[in-house]
Design a protein that fits this description.
It contains three helices and no strands. By secondary structure, the protein is mostly helical.
Length: about 90
């Protein structure tokens, strides 16, 4: 990936962390979310109801359509995975 993509990726990850914290009213700083940390279960501990909130947030913030089958799958595995999904689908 080129320099431009790297910068874009970092920006998207930053926006995603803020979005997750705002939408789900988490009491934490964006920096506290690790890029590779699982969002659901063990990691951040999000639940399926949070996924729906996240989907709405992604659609509003990034204009990406999130197909039902993407939810709870690899695309939602971590911040890194989510950022890749957004970058792929927001063009």
């Amino acid at each position: 990936p080129g320099k431009m993509q790297e910068v874009e990726m970092m920006e998207v990850k930053d926006r995603l962390k803020k979005l997750i914290i705002q939408r789900l009213k988490l009491q934490m700083e964006p920096e506290a979310i690790d890029d590779d940390e699982p969002l659901f279960g063990e990691g951040l501990g999000l639940e399926s109801i949070d996924a729906l909130e996240l989907v709405v947030g992604l659609e509003q913030e990034f204009g990406v359509q999130v197909p039902d089958e993407a939810v709870g799958r690899e695309a939602f595995a971590s911040i890194n995975a989510l950022a890749e999904f957004v970058l792929k689908n927001s063009k």
